[in-house]
Protein backbone atom coordinates (compact mmCIF):
# COMPACT_ATOMS: atom_id res chain seq x y z
CA UNK A 1 0.00 0.00 0.00
CA UNK A 2 1.53 3.34 -1.08
CA UNK A 3 1.88 6.41 1.16
CA UNK A 4 -1.31 8.05 -0.09
CA UNK A 5 -3.43 4.95 0.51
CA UNK A 6 -1.93 4.69 3.99
CA UNK A 7 -2.92 8.30 4.63
CA UNK A 8 -6.56 7.68 3.68
CA UNK A 9 -6.50 4.37 5.57
CA UNK A 10 -5.54 6.26 8.74
CA UNK A 11 -8.45 8.63 8.17
CA UNK A 12 -10.85 5.71 7.73
CA UNK A 13 -9.48 4.08 10.88
CA UNK A 14 -9.91 7.31 12.86
CA UNK A 15 -13.56 7.63 11.82
CA UNK A 16 -14.11 3.95 12.58
CA UNK A 17 -12.70 4.58 16.08
CA UNK A 18 -15.05 7.56 16.40
CA UNK A 19 -17.98 5.27 15.57
CA UNK A 20 -16.83 2.69 18.10
CA UNK A 21 -16.39 5.38 20.75
CA UNK A 22 -19.98 6.57 20.36
CA UNK A 23 -21.26 3.01 20.87
CA UNK A 24 -18.97 2.35 23.85
CA UNK A 25 -19.89 5.62 25.56
CA UNK A 26 -23.59 4.91 24.99
CA UNK A 27 -23.26 1.42 26.49
CA UNK A 28 -21.41 2.76 29.55
CA UNK A 29 -23.84 5.63 30.20
CA UNK A 30 -26.93 3.47 29.62
CA UNK A 31 -25.65 0.80 32.00
CA UNK A 32 -24.94 3.40 34.67
CA UNK A 33 -28.44 4.85 34.33
CA UNK A 34 -29.91 1.35 34.28
CA UNK A 35 -28.32 0.65 37.66
CA UNK A 36 -29.57 3.82 39.37
CA UNK A 37 -32.91 4.56 37.68
CA UNK A 38 -33.83 2.68 34.47
CA UNK A 39 -37.06 4.65 34.06
CA UNK A 40 -35.00 7.52 32.63
CA UNK A 41 -34.25 5.35 29.60
CA UNK A 42 -37.92 5.59 28.58
CA UNK A 43 -37.68 9.38 28.27
CA UNK A 44 -36.89 10.45 24.69
CA UNK A 45 -35.65 13.85 25.87
CA UNK A 46 -33.05 12.19 28.09
CA UNK A 47 -32.08 9.79 25.30
CA UNK A 48 -31.55 12.70 22.91
CA UNK A 49 -29.41 14.56 25.44
CA UNK A 50 -27.41 11.36 26.00
CA UNK A 51 -26.87 10.98 22.26
CA UNK A 52 -25.27 14.44 22.17
CA UNK A 53 -23.06 13.53 25.12
CA UNK A 54 -21.97 10.18 23.66
CA UNK A 55 -21.80 11.10 19.97
CA UNK A 56 -20.11 14.46 20.23
CA UNK A 57 -18.95 15.78 23.60
CA UNK A 58 -17.21 12.74 25.08
CA UNK A 59 -15.51 11.52 21.85
CA UNK A 60 -14.39 15.01 20.79
CA UNK A 61 -11.05 15.28 22.67
CA UNK A 62 -9.98 11.75 21.68
CA UNK A 63 -10.98 12.24 18.05
CA UNK A 64 -9.24 15.62 17.97
CA UNK A 65 -5.98 13.99 19.13
CA UNK A 66 -6.35 11.21 16.56
CA UNK A 67 -6.88 13.62 13.67
CA UNK A 68 -4.19 15.99 14.93
CA UNK A 69 -1.58 13.34 14.08
CA UNK A 70 -2.35 13.85 10.39
CA UNK A 71 -0.96 16.92 8.60
CA UNK A 72 -3.49 19.63 7.78
CA UNK A 73 -3.55 22.95 6.01
CA UNK A 74 -5.59 26.13 6.26
CA UNK A 75 -8.06 26.85 3.49
CA UNK A 76 -8.10 30.42 2.20
CA UNK A 77 -11.04 32.32 3.69
CA UNK A 78 -13.68 34.18 1.68
CA UNK A 79 -16.94 35.79 2.79
CA UNK A 80 -20.25 35.44 0.96
CA UNK A 81 -23.06 37.97 0.73
CA UNK A 82 -26.58 37.45 2.06
CA UNK A 83 -27.98 36.70 -1.40
CA UNK A 84 -25.50 33.86 -1.86
CA UNK A 85 -26.31 32.53 1.61
CA UNK A 86 -30.02 32.45 0.73
CA UNK A 87 -29.16 30.58 -2.48
CA UNK A 88 -27.10 28.08 -0.48
CA UNK A 89 -30.04 27.58 1.90
CA UNK A 90 -32.33 26.92 -1.08
CA UNK A 91 -29.85 24.39 -2.51
CA UNK A 92 -29.59 22.65 0.87
CA UNK A 93 -33.39 22.35 1.14
CA UNK A 94 -33.55 21.03 -2.44
CA UNK A 95 -30.87 18.40 -1.80
CA UNK A 96 -32.66 17.36 1.38
CA UNK A 97 -35.91 16.85 -0.53
CA UNK A 98 -34.17 14.92 -3.33
CA UNK A 99 -32.45 12.70 -0.75
CA UNK A 100 -35.72 12.17 1.10
CA UNK A 101 -37.46 11.06 -2.09
CA UNK A 102 -34.67 8.58 -2.82
CA UNK A 103 -34.85 7.30 0.78
CA UNK A 104 -38.62 6.85 0.62
CA UNK A 105 -38.37 4.90 -2.65
CA UNK A 106 -35.50 2.68 -1.47
CA UNK A 107 -37.03 1.93 1.94
CA UNK A 108 -40.42 1.23 0.31
CA UNK A 109 -38.79 -1.30 -2.04
CA UNK A 110 -36.87 -2.93 0.83
CA UNK A 111 -39.95 -2.94 3.08
CA UNK A 112 -41.90 -4.69 0.35
CA UNK A 113 -39.13 -7.23 -0.12
CA UNK A 114 -38.93 -8.15 3.58
CA UNK A 115 -42.68 -7.68 4.22
CA UNK A 116 -41.93 -5.35 7.12
CA UNK A 117 -41.85 -1.56 7.42
CA UNK A 118 -38.43 0.04 7.81
CA UNK A 119 -39.02 2.81 10.33
CA UNK A 120 -37.03 6.00 10.60
CA UNK A 121 -35.57 6.17 14.14
CA UNK A 122 -34.95 9.90 13.83
CA UNK A 123 -38.61 10.69 13.16
CA UNK A 124 -39.61 8.74 16.25
CA UNK A 125 -37.06 10.61 18.33
CA UNK A 126 -38.04 14.06 17.02
CA UNK A 127 -41.77 13.51 17.40
CA UNK A 128 -41.42 12.39 21.02
CA UNK A 129 -39.00 15.11 22.12
CA UNK A 130 -39.59 18.45 23.74
CA UNK A 131 -39.15 21.24 21.17
CA UNK A 132 -36.44 22.89 23.28
CA UNK A 133 -34.44 19.64 23.31
CA UNK A 134 -34.78 19.40 19.53
CA UNK A 135 -33.65 23.00 19.22
CA UNK A 136 -30.65 22.63 21.52
CA UNK A 137 -29.38 19.17 20.56
CA UNK A 138 -30.49 18.57 16.97
CA UNK A 139 -30.44 22.14 15.67
CA UNK A 140 -27.43 23.60 17.51
CA UNK A 141 -25.12 21.01 19.11
CA UNK A 142 -25.27 18.39 16.33
CA UNK A 143 -24.54 20.81 13.43
CA UNK A 144 -21.58 22.36 15.23
CA UNK A 145 -19.87 19.08 16.10
CA UNK A 146 -20.75 17.28 12.84
CA UNK A 147 -19.40 20.11 10.71
CA UNK A 148 -16.18 20.14 12.72
CA UNK A 149 -15.87 16.34 12.50
CA UNK A 150 -16.85 15.83 8.84
CA UNK A 151 -15.84 19.10 7.22
CA UNK A 152 -13.19 20.98 9.26
CA UNK A 153 -11.13 18.02 10.50
CA UNK A 154 -11.52 15.97 7.32
CA UNK A 155 -11.21 18.55 4.55
CA UNK A 156 -8.27 20.40 6.11
CA UNK A 157 -6.38 17.11 5.82
CA UNK A 158 -7.55 15.95 2.39
CA UNK A 159 -7.87 19.17 0.38
CA UNK A 160 -4.29 18.74 -0.86
CA UNK A 161 -5.65 15.87 -2.99
CA UNK A 162 -8.21 18.16 -4.59
CA UNK A 163 -11.72 19.45 -3.97
CA UNK A 164 -13.44 16.51 -5.68
CA UNK A 165 -11.78 13.92 -3.42
CA UNK A 166 -12.53 15.96 -0.29
CA UNK A 167 -16.17 16.54 -1.22
CA UNK A 168 -16.93 12.91 -2.10
CA UNK A 169 -15.08 11.62 0.96
CA UNK A 170 -16.84 14.07 3.27
CA UNK A 171 -20.24 13.17 1.79
CA UNK A 172 -19.64 9.42 2.06
CA UNK A 173 -18.28 9.41 5.62
CA UNK A 174 -21.07 11.74 6.75
CA UNK A 175 -23.75 9.60 5.13
CA UNK A 176 -22.46 6.28 6.45
CA UNK A 177 -21.86 7.64 9.95
CA UNK A 178 -25.58 8.23 10.48
CA UNK A 179 -25.94 4.45 10.46
CA UNK A 180 -29.35 4.04 8.83
CA UNK A 181 -30.74 3.83 5.30
CA UNK A 182 -33.38 6.50 5.91
CA UNK A 183 -30.79 9.21 6.46
CA UNK A 184 -27.99 8.05 4.19
CA UNK A 185 -29.08 9.61 0.89
CA UNK A 186 -29.95 13.12 2.05
CA UNK A 187 -26.98 13.29 4.43
CA UNK A 188 -24.73 12.18 1.56
CA UNK A 189 -26.05 14.90 -0.76
CA UNK A 190 -26.09 17.66 1.84
CA UNK A 191 -22.72 16.56 3.26
CA UNK A 192 -21.19 16.95 -0.18
CA UNK A 193 -22.68 20.43 -0.56
CA UNK A 194 -21.55 21.49 2.92
CA UNK A 195 -18.06 20.32 1.95
CA UNK A 196 -18.24 22.42 -1.22
CA UNK A 197 -19.29 25.50 0.78
CA UNK A 198 -16.48 25.00 3.28
CA UNK A 199 -13.88 24.61 0.51
CA UNK A 200 -15.29 27.62 -1.33
CA UNK A 201 -15.30 29.91 1.72
CA UNK A 202 -12.74 28.40 4.11
CA UNK A 203 -15.16 29.26 6.93
CA UNK A 204 -16.80 26.43 8.88
CA UNK A 205 -19.47 28.85 10.14
CA UNK A 206 -21.28 28.76 6.79
CA UNK A 207 -21.80 24.96 6.72
CA UNK A 208 -22.80 25.12 10.40
CA UNK A 209 -25.45 27.74 9.60
CA UNK A 210 -26.81 25.70 6.67
CA UNK A 211 -26.76 22.49 8.71
CA UNK A 212 -28.47 24.19 11.65
CA UNK A 213 -31.23 25.64 9.47
CA UNK A 214 -32.01 22.33 7.78
CA UNK A 215 -32.03 20.49 11.12
CA UNK A 216 -34.29 23.17 12.60
CA UNK A 217 -36.73 22.72 9.74
CA UNK A 218 -36.81 18.96 10.33
CA UNK A 219 -36.82 18.91 14.13
CA UNK A 220 -38.55 22.11 15.29
CA UNK A 221 -40.57 23.67 12.47
CA UNK A 222 -41.87 20.26 11.39
CA UNK A 223 -43.51 19.81 14.80
CA UNK A 224 -45.40 23.10 14.41
CA UNK A 225 -46.44 22.09 10.89
CA UNK A 226 -47.70 18.69 12.09
CA UNK A 227 -49.64 20.42 14.88
CA UNK A 228 -51.20 22.90 12.45
CA UNK A 229 -52.23 20.12 10.06
CA UNK A 230 -53.77 18.21 12.96
CA UNK A 231 -55.66 21.32 14.14
CA UNK A 232 -57.04 22.03 10.66
CA UNK A 233 -58.58 18.57 10.52
CA UNK A 234 -61.01 19.62 13.26
CA UNK A 235 -61.49 23.35 12.61
CA UNK A 236 -60.20 26.10 10.31
CA UNK A 237 -57.81 28.27 12.28
CA UNK A 238 -56.40 31.36 10.47
CA UNK A 239 -53.09 31.13 12.35
CA UNK A 240 -52.56 27.46 11.50
CA UNK A 241 -53.65 28.01 7.91
CA UNK A 242 -51.36 31.02 7.56
CA UNK A 243 -48.39 29.08 8.97
CA UNK A 244 -48.94 26.24 6.48
CA UNK A 245 -49.28 28.62 3.53
CA UNK A 246 -46.07 30.46 4.47
CA UNK A 247 -44.20 27.19 5.08
CA UNK A 248 -45.17 25.57 1.77
CA UNK A 249 -44.56 28.83 -0.11
CA UNK A 250 -41.01 29.05 1.33
CA UNK A 251 -40.33 25.39 0.49
CA UNK A 252 -41.72 25.82 -3.03
CA UNK A 253 -39.62 28.93 -3.70
CA UNK A 254 -36.57 27.22 -2.19
CA UNK A 255 -37.03 24.27 -4.53
CA UNK A 256 -37.37 26.53 -7.56
CA UNK A 257 -34.23 28.49 -6.64
CA UNK A 258 -32.39 25.32 -5.59
CA UNK A 259 -33.13 23.37 -8.77
CA UNK A 260 -32.30 26.37 -10.96
CA UNK A 261 -29.04 26.94 -9.07
CA UNK A 262 -27.98 23.30 -9.30
CA UNK A 263 -28.57 23.21 -13.07
CA UNK A 264 -26.67 26.47 -13.60
CA UNK A 265 -23.87 26.09 -11.09
CA UNK A 266 -20.78 26.70 -13.21
CA UNK A 267 -19.01 28.12 -10.15
CA UNK A 268 -18.94 24.64 -8.65
CA UNK A 269 -15.86 23.77 -10.69
CA UNK A 270 -12.61 24.40 -8.85
CA UNK A 271 -10.54 23.69 -11.99
CA UNK A 272 -7.85 21.93 -9.98
CA UNK A 273 -6.80 25.07 -8.09
CA UNK A 274 -7.10 23.27 -4.73
CA UNK A 275 -5.08 20.24 -5.86
CA UNK A 276 -1.49 19.95 -4.68
CA UNK A 277 -1.13 16.19 -5.10
CA UNK A 278 -2.52 14.64 -8.28
CA UNK A 279 -3.50 11.00 -7.84
CA UNK A 280 -3.73 8.68 -10.83
CA UNK A 281 -6.77 6.94 -9.33
CA UNK A 282 -8.07 9.37 -6.68
CA UNK A 283 -11.26 7.59 -5.60
CA UNK A 284 -9.58 4.19 -5.62
CA UNK A 285 -6.79 5.58 -3.44
CA UNK A 286 -9.23 7.29 -1.07
CA UNK A 287 -11.65 4.39 -0.59
CA UNK A 288 -9.89 1.11 -1.43
CA UNK A 289 -7.71 0.76 1.65
CA UNK A 290 -7.94 -1.10 4.95
CA UNK A 291 -9.15 1.78 7.11
CA UNK A 292 -11.91 2.93 4.76
CA UNK A 293 -13.08 -0.61 4.03
CA UNK A 294 -13.37 -1.35 7.76
CA UNK A 295 -15.21 1.94 8.36
CA UNK A 296 -17.68 1.46 5.49
CA UNK A 297 -18.19 -2.23 6.25
CA UNK A 298 -18.90 -1.49 9.91
CA UNK A 299 -21.54 1.13 9.14
CA UNK A 300 -23.15 -0.96 6.41
CA UNK A 301 -23.61 -3.67 9.05
CA UNK A 302 -25.23 -1.08 11.35
CA UNK A 303 -27.52 0.07 8.53
CA UNK A 304 -28.57 -3.50 7.71
CA UNK A 305 -29.13 -4.23 11.40
CA UNK A 306 -31.30 -1.13 11.80
CA UNK A 307 -33.32 -1.91 8.68
CA UNK A 308 -33.87 -5.67 8.94
CA UNK A 309 -33.53 -6.66 12.60
Describe the 3D structure.
By secondary structure, the protein is mostly helical. The protein contains twelve helices and no strands. The longest helix is centred in the first third of the chain and has 34 residues, at 3-36. The two termini are 36 Å apart.
Q: How would you summarize the topology of this molecule?
A:
Blueprint: H1 3-36, H2 44-57, H3 60-68, H4 82-114, H5 121-128, H6 131-158, H7 163-177, H8 181-201, H9 205-232, H10 238-263, H11 282-287, H12 290-308
Helix pairs in contact: 1-2, 1-3, 1-12, 2-6, 3-6, 4-8, 4-9, 4-10, 6-7, 6-8, 6-9, 7-8, 8-9, 9-10
How do you describe this structure in short?
This protein is mostly helical and 309 residues long. It has twelve helices and no strands. The two termini are 36 Å apart.
Alpha plus pi helix count: 12
Estimate the helix proportion, in percent: over 70%
In one word, what is the shape?
globular
Question: Main β-sheet: number of strands, strand sense, barrel status?
Answer: none
**Amino- and carboxy-terminal Cα gap:** 36 Å
Question: How many strands?
Answer: 0
Helix-strand sequence: HHHHHHHHHHHH
What is the radius of gyration computed over CA atoms, rounded to a whole number of angstroms? 20 Å
- Tell me the structural class: mainly alpha
Provide the descriptors you would attach to this structure in a database record:
single chain; 309 residues; mainly alpha
